[in-house]
Design brief:
The complex is a heterodimer of chains A (about 375) and B (about 290).
Chain A lengths: L2 H4 L5 H12 L3 H25 L8 H31 L1 H9 L2 H5 L5 H27 L1 H5 L4 H28 L3 H27 L18 H10 L12 H7 L1 H15 L6 E4 L2 E3 L21 E5 L2 E4 L9 E2 L2 E2 H23 L10
Antiparallel strand pairs in A: 1-2, 2-4, 3-4, 5-6
Chain B lengths: L2 E12 L2 E12 L3 E5 L6 H8 L7 E6 L8 H7 E4 L11 H11 L7 H12 L14 H12 L6 E4 L8 H16 L3 E6 L2 H7 L2 E6 L2 E6 L1 H9 L2 E7 L4 E6 L4 H13 L3 E6 L4 H8 L6
Parallel strand pairs in B: 3-7, 3-8, 5-6, 6-7
Antiparallel strand pairs in B: 1-2, 1-4, 8-9, 10-11, 10-12
The chains are: A mainly alpha (about 375), B alpha/beta (about 290).
Chain lengths: ~375, ~290
């Protein structure tokens, strides 16, 4: 008996899409381009690390730092490429059938609308999964260098996949709502842009009306941002990074209000200005040498904060412990993010299903 | 005779525009039913409502006892629908195309090979089994679309403009295919604005214009009813032609024949004149398409 015959039947739409996509002319091109970009990034970070002699006489910590940097840059670009590829890949899913005038024939079969939408979604995600699997050999290179744990890497890849699910669901609903693929594609990229840049703009705008010293707004809006959530997953445990991480600016944003708390702790301890800001993990910038009490005797270290000697307006503090990672309403930021994405993706999926359910009040032509 | 499709007061409005108004239609089981009308008469809209694609503004339809609005899946089990546009997929072979629709109708995988062989033979595409769908000619795509509509062995087939864009040979083939389907016990409903074709194919016709049903029945019957009889042409030797109007029951025509012979006229031709649909169509439609 053939193996295929013993397996439960695949969603017919998924099976057909896989066949069609794999026979398409551009699929090998997309995979090749994707891997080329990632390989270039890897080479670039690796060469930079080698130039800084982190592998030679340097410490093990330096080498692991390079490993982390390679991993984070790869992850960053995987996320970026997913943001570029998924909307374009999915936006034609339903509108394309409409344009080819195959949709009605599909709708009047016994397939339920949710099976049709699910088949389309899975076909897009299967392609993303192919990209992720194809990039595994590259992504595992940091293991050779060290500095990245398996759960950390798995966490990062899960965030990329979750981002792909969210973007695919949004692109699907665009495809179901818009008549033409062109419109659906524009709308899908628009929504992606709104998630990536729009949320940042809103978060920035939220900072403006804040009175000096007042508590900063919590980064609720950033839960929708794939880069913020991924930064939260991979950045929290980073402390030995001598290379810049691409997720660092985002991680810094997430910690803005934590920074306020931290500087207040410092303030209470040693008379520093309360304007301290964590510029990167482990470094807090305060107002400068003219701040009252400079130089100061080391204040009694508050929990999780070790204050080192002050120098040029900077105070070294100990690592931000895992407990101090961003939480919203007591829940880890990345978990809130995944929850929000799930709600958004489910809503988009449901809307797409409703949009292609028949009989409809209007005929689609 | 029971009805394969029945509509009662079926109406579809888009704002002020009525695409279909108050349509009462009955398609007898086992018939080849032609829906005739000019473009924009509401034929496709009627089909879309019957095939559970479009919800009516008012009125009801019934296909093999199932209501397309409340039981669309029931309708889809009994009805094969071929839209007037031929959409096909790229990068798919003919057999894979049919396999996909077999899967979409939840037919068990083990039945696919036999089913697809049968369908391809029926529509005469056996040799194209491994061809890519997009490489087929228009006529072949049309036959493939018909095979697709037949994949789940429906009792009722609704074909929207199946002959449009076909060359004469393909039309002849389509006609014999429809006859074959009828012989298999299926009810076939087709729409067209090409009247002569319908006359040759259909056992019943309905004429629509501007969303309204103007007449329905068998072609001969409609003609007689509308005109109160039909014309008989008598051509005499020497080229003289006389026309007589007789009622539809045949008695008057027989009487006329007897009289002509008794008169000893030099008859070279005695024939019933056009119950042609073309003529009928021009007679009943007023050209008031919306």
């Amino acid at each position: 008996m053939r193996v295929a015959a013993t397996l439960p039947p695949l969603n017919p739409v998924l099976a057909r899409e896989l066949k069609q996509r794999m026979r398409g002319r551009h699929i090998w091109l997309v995979v090749t381009l994707y891997l080329s970009v990632l390989a270039l990034i890897l080479r670039w970070v690796y060469v930079a690390a080698a130039r800084d002699d982190v592998f030679g006489g340097g410490s093990v910590l330096n080498a692991t730092s390079a490993g982390r940097a390679i991993f984070q840059w790869l992850l960053f670009f995987m996320l970026l490429l997913v943001c570029f590829i998924v909307p374009g890949l999915t936006a034609a899913a339903i509108s394309g059938e409409r344009e080819r005038q195959t949709l009605v024939s599909l709708q009047i079969t016994l397939l339920r609308p949710r099976s049709i939408v699910a088949g389309k979604l899975l076909a897009s995600l299967a392609f993303v999964a192919l990209l992720l699997v194809a990039s595994l050999p590259l992504v595992t290179i940091p293991f050779l260098v060290g500095g990245v744990s398996v759960p950390e890497m798995a966490g990062g890849l899960v965030m990329v996949l979750a981002t792909a699910v969210l973007l695919a669901c949004l692109a699907l609903v665009c495809s179901a709502v818009m008549r033409r693929t062109q419109g659906a594609t524009v709308l899908a990229y628009g929504l992606t842009l709104a998630l990536v840049l729009g949320t940042l703009a809103v978060f920035g705008a939220q900072q403006i009306p804040r009175a000096s010293g007042a508590p900063r707004p919590r980064p609720w809006i950033l839960v929708l941002n794939p880069f913020a959530a991924t930064a939260d997953v991979v950045q929290g445990r980073s402390r030995t990074l001598s290379f810049e991480s691409p997720f660092e600016p985002m991680a810094t944003l997430l910690r803005l209000s934590e920074n306020d708390r931290l500087s207040q702790v410092l303030d209470g301890g040693g008379g520093f200005s309360s304007r301290g800001v964590i510029v990167r993990p482990g470094i807090v910038a305060v107002d400068g040498p003219s701040a009252p009490g400079f130089p100061v005797p080391a204040p009694p270290p508050p929990p999780n904060v070790i204050v080192g000697g002050p120098f040029q307006g900077q105070v070294r503090v100990g690592p931000v412990s895992r407990d101090q990672r961003t939480r919203l309403a007591g829940v880890p930021f990345w978990l809130v993010s995944l929850g929000a994405w799930l709600v958004l993706a489910t809503a988009a999926f449901t809307l797409a299903v409703r949009r292609i359910s028949l009989p409809a009040p209007r005929e689609e032509r | 005779m029971t009805a394969a499709i029945r509509t009662v007061g079926l109406t579809k409005r888009y704002g002020n525009l009525a695409a279909v108004r108050d349509l009462d239609l009955e398609v007898p089981e086992g018939s080849i039913f032609g829906l005739i009308g000019p473009n924009g008469a509401g034929k496709s809209t009627t089909f879309a409502m019957v095939a559970s694609i479009l919800s009516p503004t008012s009125g009801t339809a019934e296909v093999a006892g199932c209501d397309p609005v409340t039981d669309p899946r029931g309708v889809r089990r009994h009805l094969g629908y071929m839209p007037d546009v031929l959409g096909v997929y790229d990068n798919l072979r003919v057999d894979e195309y049919l396999e996909f629709f077999a899967a979409a109708h939840h037919l068990p995988r083990s039945t696919w090979p036999g089913l697809i062989d049968g369908l391809l033979e029926l529509v005469g595409l056996e040799v194209k089994r491994d061809a890519m769908v997009e490489s087929l000619s228009r006529g072949m795509k049309q036959r493939l679309a018909l095979a697709r509509a037949l994949v789940h062995d429906p009792d009722v087939l609704v074909l929207d403009e199946p002959a449009s864009g076909l060359d004469p040979r393909a039309r002849v083939e389509l006609r014999s295919l429809l006859a074959e389907l009828r012989a298999m016990g299926k009810t076939v409903v087709i729409s067209s604005h090409i009247l002569t074709e319908m006359q040759e194919m259909c056992t019943h016709v309905a004429i629509m214009e501007a969303g309204r049903l103007l007449a329905s029945g068998d072609p001969q019957h409609i003609g007689d009813r509308l005109r109160g009889g039909h014309a008989v042409v008598v051509r005499l030797a020497g080229g003289e032609v006389r026309r007589f109007r007789v009622s539809g029951d045949g008695e008057q025509q027989a009487l006329l024949h007897r009289l002509v012979v008794e008169e000893g006229l030099p008859v070279v031709e005695f024939r019933q004149e056009g119950t042609g649909l073309e003529e009928l169509f021009m007679e009943v439609t007023e050209g008031t398409v919306q």
